[in-house]
Protein 1
Amino acid sequence: MAYSSKVVDHYENPRNVGSLPKDDANVGTGLVGAPECGDVMKLQVKVNPETGVIDDAKFKTFGCGSAIASSSLATEWLKGKTVDQALAIKNTDIVAELSLPPVKIHCSVLAEDAIKAAIADYKAKQEKDKGVPASAGHAQPNA
Amino acid sequence: MKLPIYMDYHATTPVDPRVLEAMTPYFTQHFGNAASRNHSFGWEAEEAVETARKQVADLIGASAKEIIFTSGATESNNLAIKGVAEMYREKGNHIITCVIEHKAVIDTCKKLEKQGARVTYLPVQKDGRISLDELRAAITDKTILITIMTANNEIGVLQPIAEIGAIAKEKGILFHTDAVQAVGKVPVSVNDLKVDLLSLSAHKMYGPKGVGALYVRRRNPRVLLAEQISGGGHERGMRSGTLNVTGIVGLGKAAELAKNEMASEAERLKKLRERLSAGLHENLDELYINGSLEHRLPHSLNISFAYVEGESLLMGINDVAVSSGSACTSASLEPSYVLKALGAGDDLAHSSIRFGLGRWTTEEEVDYVIEKLTTVVRRLREMSPLYEMVKEGVDLSKMQWVTH
C-alpha cells in the first residue's frame, strides 16, 4: 500500500514520542485499543491548571504507520488548545490531514478515542481532587 | 549490494536465466500447438512438452504419464479435490484437511461443503504440525480424501507426510498434498511418501508464473478424477485446454535444475537462515519463532517481534521485501489465520515477519537485513506503549483493553 507523504513524515519523524508522569494531577492519560487488534495508543496531555490550556502532549503507539501518524498528529494539534477545543478534534479532521484511505479510518477513530480518554482522565483527576469519585475511560488492570 | 533486497521467496521467485533461455525458442520459433498431430511444428511442441513431463516426474519420483499440466497450483488443488469428490461420490463424501492449508485448498473444501460434502479441518499443534492421532480419529468409512500440505507457505513447517501417507494407504483413502512450497526445496518422492495426488507450481521454484502440475497416481491405486475444465480432452482427459508449451518447458527446466542443485542450495540457505536468526536474536530480546524449527523448509523463517506491529515494521524496512501476518497487511483486516491457529495469540500474529531466502540471497544481504531490522525494531519499541508497560512490570494479559 502506498502511504501519503504526510503519513511517511510522521512515521519517520514522529512528534512528541514519550511519556509524561501519569500520577501528576495535571496529566491525563488515555490508553485505547488492544494488542490482539494490532493497535494500542497511549496519549497523554499536561494541562495548565491556571489557563486550562494543554501545555504538553506525548504519545506512544503500537500499530501500523497510519496509527503512528494519527497519534503523532493528534499530539501536535493538542498543544496550545484548551481542553474543550481538544474535545472538538474529530477523526475526520485527521483523515483529511493525513489523506488516510478508507481501510485506515479506524486509526483516526482510535486517535480521537485516545484524546477523549486522556481528557476524561484529566477531568476525573480534577474532580477527585474536589472529592468527587470518577471513573477513568481507559484501559486498566483487572481488579 | 543492490537495493531493494528480495527476501519473499515464498510468494514467488524470479525466473532462473537458464529457464528463460530454455523457454525463449518456444515463443517464436517452435510455437506449434502440442496437439497438432500432422506437422513438424506440432511435433516439436509435443516433444518439448514430453521432455518437460519427464523432468517434472523425475523431480518427485513419479513416471511421466502421471503428470498433468495445469495453470498453477491453485488449479491443481481444485482439480485434485473437486475431481476426487465428484469421481468418488458413490464411495463417500468426507474429506479431511487442516486449518492452516492454503486458501486454494480451504476454499475449495468450503465450496464442496456447500454442495453437501462433509469436511474435517484438523487443528495444528503449537509447532504447526497436525496430530496423527487426531487424523486417525477423524477418519470414517465415508472418508474419500485426505488433503494436507507438505510445507506451509507462511511458517515453512513440514507436515509428517510419510506418516499421513501410511495411514491413508492403510485405510484405503486417497491422499493429496499441496507441495508447492516444498517441491524443489526438499526431497519429495511420491512413492516414499505414499502420496496419490500432489500439486506443484513453476513460479515457486524459479520457473514462470501461470504453469503448474498435478501428479495423479496411475498404479496402486489408479486414481481417477472428474475433469473440471472440459474441452478437447488434453492431458488424458483430465484437463482440457491448449498446452502452455513455453510455460511447461520452463517448468521442466526449473524442475531439472532443482533436482541437480537442491541439496547444495538447501545447505547454503539453511546456513544463511541460521545466520539471520542468530543475528536477530543477538541484537533483540522477545523474539518468537513461529512453528517448528526442526521440521521446516531450509530457506524459511517466521519471527514475531513482540510489541511491534508488523506493518509499521515493514514500513521501516522498505528496501527489504518480506511479508507480515499483521492484519494491516491483509485485505481482510484479519491477522494471519495460520499464526492464529498456532495458538500463540493474535498479538504475536500482528508482530510477525516472514523471511524467505532463495537462490540469489547473499550473506551480505542477510547482514544488511539484520542491521536494518534491529534499528527499526528498537526505534518502534521505544515508541511502543506495550514495550514500556512490560518493562514497567505490567502483565499485558491481565489488562482490560478498551476495544471497539
Protein 2
Amino acid sequence: MRCLLDGEAIGPLQILTEPLSFWGGVDVESGQIIDPNHPQFGELVSGCILGLPHGRGSSSSATVLAEMIRIGSGPVGLILSEPDQILVAGGYVANVLYAKRFVVSVGDLPETSEGVFRLDADGLEQLGA
Amino acid sequence: MCGPTTNCLSPLRRDPDLKLSEHDLASLNGDLGSGAALAMGLLVAIASTDGARSFIDIVGAHIDGCLFHGRAGTDFVRALVDGGSQVKVPTTLNVSSLDLLHPDLYRGSDFTAEAARELMDLHVALGCAPTWTCAPYQLPDRPKLGSQIAWGESNAIVFANSVLGARTNRYGDFADLACAVTGRAPATGLHTGVGRLADVVVELDVPETVFAHDIFYPLLGFWLGANTGNGIAAIVGLPAATTEDDLQALGAAAASSGSTAMFHAVGITPEAPSLHECVKGVDLPTLSVGIEDLRDARARLGIGEGVVGAVSVGTPHLSSQELEKLSALTAGRRSRVPFYVNTGRNVLDEASTAAITSLEAFGATIVTDTCTYITPIMGPVDGPVLTNSGKWAYYAPANLGVEVVFAGLSECVEAALTGRINLSDPFLTS
C-alpha cells in the first residue's frame, strides 16, 4: 500500500464497490450516500476508513471532501484502488487548514470486515482482537 | 498549526523522483509567503499522486472553485490572499452561485448569497478576472495550440484540449488555483505529447443525415463518456462542416457521463489531421456507434411528452453564434412557459440590441455569471424541463429535483410556443 497523504485514521472499514462522487453523491451534513445509482446508497461514510476504487465525476468533489472533513461528517481516511488527485487535494487542504490528520493510501481494497482499524503511512491494521 | 513548511505531522508525501526547481523549493519552504507554501504543497501532493517527475510553467489558468460549496472553499482562498499570493498568469473565473448582472433572479437564502459573494470577491482579490463563465474559450485571447494551461471545469478542459489543442490535465478545486498562484503544473498526462494520443478509435455507423441535427453531437458525447471512461478517443467520420459549437456540446456531454478530458475528431481537431497521427500505436480497440446507441443515449438523458414546465438552454454558456441563432428562432414569437438562456456576460456584451430585444419579447430570462442547474434561479415548474444540453440533462434531476426532457434547440423553442412537448426528430421516429 502506497501512502499519498500522511496522517492517521482510526475507525471501522466501509468498502464501496463502485466509484463515488462526493459532489452530488454524498450529503455533506450527514455523510450519507445519496446517489441513488450507487450500490451503497443510504450508507454512511462518516467516521469510517473508506475504501473505494476512486472518485468520480465533478472536480468539485475536492471542496466537498474538505468541507466534510472540516465539519466532521466525512470519512477519517481513504484507501483507493487507483490514485485520485482530486481526493488527495481535498484531504491535503483539510489537513493543512484545519490541522486534521486525514490519510489517503492507494492499494488493494481490503475485504469488508467488522472491528476497528488503523490506517497510517505504514498501512492498515486491525486494532484489538 | 502544521503546514507544508513544518515537519510536525506534515501530510506531505513527496515522491523522491519529483524534481523541484529552486523557485519551487523556495515556494514550498515558505520563503515566498505562506500562500505560496500552501499552493506548492498542494501541487507536490498531486504531482506525487500522479507520478510526475517535474513541474512546467503555465501561461494561463481557469478556476472552477468560485462556486460556493461550503466554508472550506472560502478558507482556502482566504489563506492564499492572507498569505500574500497573487495569480502569476492570466486567470479567468468559472460560474459562481450568483448572477451579479441580474441579482433578483437568485431565490436562495441571504446567508448563502453572502457566502457566495465573499468567495467571488476573494478570487478577484487574488487577481483573477471576473469573467464568471464556464466557456472561457469564448473569451478573447483564448489559449493557442500547444499552450500549457491549468483549467478547471470539465467542459472547458475537454474543449481546451480537443478543439484548441492547448494542454491541461483535469484540475479540480484547489489544484487549479494552486497552479495559477505558482504559475506551475505537474508535467504529466495531457501536458505531455505522448499523453495526448488516442487509446481508442470510435467509428460512426450512422446515416449522414444525422449530422444536420444539433442533438446528434451531445448524444454522441453522452455515449462517448459512458463508453470510453477517462480514455482519449479518436472519432472517425464526423463531417468537415462540424462547428465549434457542435464540438462544445459533444465534449460537455462526454465530460458529464464520463471523465473525458480530451478527444480527437479526425480531420477536424488540430492534433488529428489523420488517424495515424493522433493514436497511441496500432491495434487499438475500435468501437462503433450506431443509431440505436444514440437512441439509447437519448432515452437516458430524458424523453417524454405532454405539458412542458420550463425550458433551459445554454449549458455550457451559449456562444454568440448560438445566441443569434436562438434569437432568429424566437423572433416575433412568445413563450408560454419560463424560458431560461444561460450565457456569459462577455457574449451578452457583444450581442446585438436586436437579438436581446427579440429574446426579451419572446419572454426569455437571460442568466449570466451562473447557470440554472447549479443555483436556485428557476421557480417551481409544472412539468418536465426541456433542455438542449446533455450536461444540464445529466445533472439537473439530482441537483434540482426536476424531470428532464432532452431535445434540439428548435424543438425547445417549438415546445415553449405551444406549452407541449412534441418530439419529432429522426432519432425517435425513423
Protein 3
Amino acid sequence: MIKIEKLHKSYPIGKDSLHVLKGIDLNINEGEFVSIMGSSGSGKSTLLNIVGLLDGHDEGNYYLNGQLIKDLNEKKAAVLRNKFLGFVFQSFNLIGYKTALENVALPLYYKGMARKERLKVALDYLDKVGLKDWANHLPNELSGGQKQRVAIARALVTKPKVVLADEPTGALDSVTSDSVMDLLKDINNEGMTVFVITHEEEVAAQTKRIVRLKDGLIISDELTKAAKAV
Amino acid sequence: MFDLDRWREIFQSINKNRLRSVMSGFTVAFAILLFTLLFGIVSGLSNSFKSAFSDDAQNFMKVRVWKTSKPYKGLQTGRRVQLRNEDYNYIGKEYEDRIQYQSARVFKNFSIKYKNEANVYRVRAVNPDHQFLEKTIIDEGRFLNERDLNERSKNIVIGRLLKSDLFGERPALGKRVNVSGSSYLVIGIFSDEGGDSEERKAFIPITTAQMMYGNNDYLNEVVLGYNPNLSLDKAIAFGKQMERDMREKMNIHPDDRSALSVRNMAEANKGVGIFMAILYAIVILIGSGTLVAGIIGISNIMIFVIKERTKEFGIRKALGAVPSSIVGMVVQESVLITTIAGYLGLSLGTYILSLIGNSLEENYFIKDPSVSPEIVIGATLVLISAGLIAGYIPAKRAANIKPIEALRAD
C-alpha cells in the first residue's frame, strides 16, 4: 500500500539546510496498523506529511497504492489525497463555522457527490463513531473526544486506502484517548490501513507494528504483542 | 456554470462571518455612495449651467448699438448710433453662409387691452426667425410668418401670462385686443423657459411696427443664430469680424464697444465648456480617488480575511480541495459582496439625490442632480473587477501555500 525507498528530505533554514529524513525505507501493506514512534525532531511528522502528500520529498521513491509519487502539482496531490487518504490531526482541524455533519460531508463535496447523498453518507459515518445525535452541533459545542471522533468520521467518509493520524490523542485525556484508540482499532479490524504518529508508548502499544525513528533514520521496526496475539 | 453547492458554501461563509462581510461591504458601499453623490451634484451643476443659457438658442448672437464713446473720422463722442433695415439686409447678405437665423428687433411698451382688462406690456416687433432665436414655444395658434411681414398685418402673438392677465381662463386665440389704440388679432400664445417676465411679452411683425409707429426703418437690435456647423472658435471669430465690419461701415472707432457690440453665445459657451471640463476633470479625479480608496479598502480586508482563513484552506486542501476551487470560492464571495454593497451604495446615493434634489434646486443653483446610466454601469463594472482583483490576488497566494504550512497557521 505504501512503499518508501531511500527517502530524503531537508528543509532550508536560512542559508543552511536541515537534513530531516536521511534515507528511510518502509513498506506498509494493506490492513496494517502501524505507529511511528519518535521524540520531537526525529522526523516522524515530516514522514507523515510526505506520506500524506502534504509535502514533497527530495530524494528516493514513494509509491502510494502502487503509483509512483513524483512531481505532483497541487491539483493532482489534492485529487490523490481526496481519493486515497484520510487525515486525523492532533488539533482536530474541524471548520469552526460548519456543523459536525457538514464537516464530515466536506471531503465528499470535493469528490463531487450530490448534497443530499453526501449528507446521508456523512450521517452514517457520524453514527458509526457514535455521534449521530450531535450531527447539527458546531465543533465548539463538542468535547475534545467528540471532535476527534468527528475528525475520524471525516477521514473515513471517502473510504480511503489509508488513514493517517498525527498524534490523534495528543490533545485528549487518557480516558478519551482510549476511546479514540479503540475506534481506530475497530477501523483497522474492518480492514483499513491505519498509520499513526505518536510519542506515547501506551498509544503505540495498541497498534500492531511500531516503527521507531531517531534523527531521521529508522532504528527499529517490530510487531507488537497485540499483533502477535491475533 | 451555476454551482449550487458553491453558492451554498459562499452564503454559509458570509453568514457565519457577518462582521467581516459587513465591514468589507461597508467600505465599498460607502465609496460608491460618495462617488454617486459627487457625480450627481456635479451633473446637477452642469444642468443648471446649461439651463441658465437655454432661454436663448445656443448659437444666439446679438448686435446692439448705443452712443459713441470715442471720436472717429471727425465725428464727435456721444453720437447716437442707429441700426436700420439696410444694416439688417447687409448682415444677411454679407454673412449668408454663416447665419442660420436672423431677426430684427424693435422694442415698444404698449398698453394692451381686452374688454375691461388692460395693462402696459413690452411688445417686440420681430421677424419670423425670432421664434427659434428666443426658443419661443408656441402653445396655441402660430408664430408670425413671412406673410404677416409682407402684408404688415396687425397680428399679435402673446405670452402665456399676458394671456391669463387679460383673458383669465377664457380663450384668447382669434380674439381682438386693443394695442395702443389699434386692433390686433391674437394668432398665437407662447410660453418661454426664460421665466415669468418673458411670458408677459408680445410679438408683432417688424414691418407693421415700423409703418405704424414712427414710419421709419429704425431697428433696436439685430439678433442672429450663427450656422451651427461652425466650431466655437470659428463662431467667435465670425462675431469679431462682424463687429469690425459693422463699426467700419457705420463710421465707428474700431474699439468703441459702447457704440456697437456683438454679443456672442459662442464665447459664453466656450467659457462654460472650459469651466465644466475642468469641473468634470476634478470630479473624475476625486471620484476615481474615492473608488480607488474603496478598492484598496476591500483589498486590505480581503488580505486580512484570507490570512484568517489560511488554516481553513489548509484543511480544505488536505481533504481534497484543488487550489482553483479555493480561489474560485474566495473570488466569488468577494465579487458577490462588492456587487451587493456597490449596488446598495448606488441605490442609497440615488435615493439621497432624489430626496435633496428639490431643495438643492431651490437653494443652491443645482438642477436635477442625478447620475447617468452609463456612469452607473461603469462604476458597477469597476466594482466587480475590483472585487475580482481584491479576492483573486490574496486567494491565489493562499491557495498556493502548501497545506502543511497552511495547517500550521493560526
Protein 4
Amino acid sequence: MTIGAGNGSLEVRNLTKHFTIGGGLFGPERKIVRAVNDVSFTIPKGTSLGLVGESGCGKSTVARSLLRLIEPDAGSVIFDGTDVRAAKGKALRQLRRRMQIVFQDPYSSLNPRRTIRQALEEPLRVHGLGSGKEISEKAEAAIAEVGLSKEVIDRYPHEFSGGQRQRIGIARALVLDPELIVADEPVSALDVSVQAQILRLLENLRERRGLSFLFVSHDLGVVRHFCDRVCVMYLGRIVEQGVTAEVLDRPLHPYTKLLRDSSPVPDPTARLTLTKILGEVPSPADPPPGCTFHPRCPRAAGRCMTAIPALEHGPGRKAACYYPERWPDLQTAEAAV
Amino acid sequence: MTQAQETALEIRGLRTEFRIGGQWYPAVRDLSLSVAKNETLAIVGESGSGKSVTALSILRLLPQAGARIGAGEIRFDGRNLAQLSEREMSDVRGNSIAMIFQEPMTSLNPTMTVGEQIAEAITIHRKVSRAEAMAEALHLLKEVKIPSAESRLHDYPHQFSGGMRQRVMIAMALACRPKVLLADEPTTALDVTIQAQVLMQLDELKEAYGMSVLFITHNLGVVAQIADRVAVMYAGEIVELAAVDALFAQPTHPYTEALLRAMPRVDRATENLEPIPGGVPAVTAMPPGCAYAPRCPYRQPSCEKDRPELVPLDDTGHLVRCPVRLAKGRG
Amino acid sequence: MAGAVSTSPARPGGLWLAFSKNRLSWVGLVLLAAIILVAIFAPFIAPHDPLEQNIVVRLEPPSAEYLLGTDSYGRDVLSRLIYGTRISLTVGFIAILIAMTIGSTIGILAGYVGGLFDQIVMGLLDVMLSFPTLLLGLMIAAMLGASLENLIIAIAITEIAPFARIARAPTIALKQRDFVEAGRALGFGPVRIMGVHILPNMISDVVVMGSLWMASAIRTEASLSFIGLGVPPPTATWGSMIREGFENILDAWWLAVFPSLAILLTVLALNLLGDALRDAIDPKLRAE
C-alpha cells in the first residue's frame, strides 16, 4: 500500500512498543516494560541518523521495529511512501530487499555452519535474483566491495577475525542492493583501529551507493563522525534531536549534556568536570512519572515530576524539556505563564 | 615522576608464555614497568596486546596448564612474586594486591549475598569475627556509595545493576586495604554515565586509601581522564611509556600516533579518521624485528631486522620503542 | 586486507580430542564395530542355522559343536545369538532414527513458533514423558500386536518426547542469535530458517543423545521381547532367548547368561561411544 509519492526517505511516527514480562499463574508479578514510547523521526534519502542512548533506552528495539523483526504495537513506519507495517507476503519481501541490518556482534551474526559464499548467495537465491552464475558473481562482487579477497569466500566464519566478520556481515547486507541500512552498534565490539577501518568502509559505501543509515550507538564520538543528525533517547523516548555537531556542542536537554560530559575525551587537559551525577537509569518497567529524567536532573522542578514534556520545535532542533538550556523562546513563554 | 616517589610495584623483564600446539609462545615479552605509591598507571592496548595477561601474571592468575611465567621478576614488598609458592600468593591476593574485572556478573558469586562475599574477603586474610567482618562490609558499601547499604548488604548480586555490582566488586577489593589495585577494563561493560561515576569514585578512593592503581583499558579517552602515567602496549611489549600529558601532547611511537588518529571524538569533528591498515600479528607468527613494522608508515629496512629497544626520548621519563622516531625527535 | 586469521580449531578436531582423551571411547568404538560386523556377516559366522531344531541335543551345555550350548528345541545358542544381533541393531537403529526425525521436528517447531503452540506441545510431551518407557512401549505393542514393524513403531513412539525436548532448548537459544534475525531481515521464510540455519547448528547435540538412547531402545526391545510382545517365535531375539533361559535357569544357565551378556556389551559399547561423542561437542572441551 503506497501513501503518497515516495522520495526514498524513511518516516517514523509515534512508534510504540511495550513488552510484558512475568505474569502467569505461578510467575512473578506482571510488569509492562515500556521499551519504546512515541518515537518519531525522519531519515531523508542518503543521510545518516544516529540513535544514541544508554542501556534500556530502547534504541535497539526501535532499530528492529523498523524492519519488523520486532512488531511495533503502534505508530507508523513509511519507507519511500510505502507503509512498512501494513506490508504482507510479497510486498513485505520486496521491502526487505530495500532495508537491511548490520549487527553488533561479529561472532553471532554469521551462521557457523555456512561458508561465506553460501551466506552471501542465499538471499539472492531466495529472492530469485538471477541465474546461478549471476548469483555467484554478485556474491564475489560483494566480498570484494567490502575489501576482502575473493579466495575467502569458500571459508567458514570461524576462520576470520572480528573485523573481517563484520565486513562479511556488511557484504551480506549489501548483496540485495538495499537503500537503507540499520546499523545496530556495528563497531562497538571492535578495537579502535579496526573500528576506524569499518567506519571508513561504511562511509565509502554510503557515498558510492547513496545509502541512508540509521546508526545506533552508545559512542558519541563515533556518532559525531558518521551521522548528519542525531536523536538522543532516554527510557524509550527521544529527548533531543538535531544536527549532530550542534546537539553535541550545545545540548539543550540536561541528559544530552550529561551524556556528552561523561564521554571520555583523549585529552588530559579536559578532564571530566561533572557535577555530581545522581543515581542510575531506572528500569523501563518502572519509569518515574512525568519527565522520566527528573530524578537525576539538576534542574527538575514543578511540572517535571508530573507531566511528560513534549518534543518542542525549535529552529531545526527539538528537545523534550521544560527547562532546556539557553532557549529564549521557551523561557519567554515560561515567564508569561 | 620524581625519583623521590616510592615504588609500590615493579616488573622487570616479564615474559609470560602460552603453549599453543605443543610450543611455547610469549604473549608478554620483556616487559618492565613500575608503579609508584598513589599513582595511577594506565596500560592501554587493543586485543592481543598482552595487557590483561600482564595483570594476571602479577597475581599469578594464569591458567595452570598451558601458561607460565618464562622469565622476569615482579617485585612487591621486597619479594619476587613470580617465585612465591601458591600458598604465599593466596596470601597476597585480595590482601595487599587486589584485582577487579570487567564483568561483575561473572566475578561475583551469585549464590552468596553481597555482604557475605565482602566479609569473606576480609576473614580470609584477617583474624576477625564474622560480626566484625560484616560491620566492615557495611562500612565499605557505604564508602562506595551504595544507597540503602544496610538492607543491600543482604541482597544477591543479581539484584544489583551493572554499575552497582562494579562498586560491590570495588568494595570487595578494598576490604583489606590493598597497596596496589589491578583494574582490568572495569568500566568497559558499563554505560558511559555510570562509567564516569565509577571512575570518579575510584579516584576518590585511591586518594583516601593511599593505593596505587594499575588500570588496564583499550580506551584512550578513559586513559586521559584517570591516568598519571601511561604505558602503550602492542603485541606483548610496551611501545611507549610517558606521563599522561606528555603522551597526548607528544605521541611519539607510530602506533600511539595511529591510535589517536583513528579515534573519533565527541568534542570535535574528526573528518578524516585514519584506519591502521593490517592487523595485530598472531602470537605464533611474530615478525622478526619490530612487531609494528608491517603496519608502520615510517618503517625503514632496519626495522624489519632489528628488534628495537625501549629508550628514553628525553629526561622526563618518556620512553619509546622506535629508533626511527627517536632519531627524528632528537634531530 | 585479505587473509584469514585462524585461531580456533575446526569442529572435527573436537572428536579426535575427545577420543584421545578418553581411552574407553576406543573400547566402545571397537566393540560396536565388532557387533555391527557380526550382524552384517551373520550368515558367514554362525556355525549353525538358528532355526534348525534338533531335539536330540536339546538343553546341552556349551561344547565343541555348540559353543554356547543349545536351547530347549536343540537350536544352537551361538547362532541364535548372532542372528539376534541383527534384530537388536535394526530395531534400535531404525526406532531411534524415526524418533529422532519426528521428535526433533516437533521440538524445533515448538521452540521456533513459541507461544501457545509451544505450551500445548510441551504439555503433551510432559504427559508422554511421565509414562515409564517400558509401560508405554508395552501399551503400544499390546495394541498393535507382535511383529518386527510394530515393535519398531512402539519403541520409536516412546523415544519421541525425549528428542523433542532436547531439540527444543537449543532452538530457543538459536532463535535469538543474530544470524537468525539476519535471515528474517533478508526475507527468509520460517521453513528455511528452521531447516538451514537452526537445524544444522544443533543436530550434533541431538545425534549424540540419539546414540545414547539407542542403548535404551535396545534394552526396551529386549524387555518387550522378554514379555512376549516382541518379534514372534521362532525368530531369534535376545529378549525372547532370555525369557526362555529364565524358564530354565536352574538347569540350563547358558540360555539366560549369554544373551544377557550380549545385551550388556552392546549397551556398554553404545554408552561409551555416546559419552565420547558428547564430550566431543562439549564447548568447554573444544575451547582447550
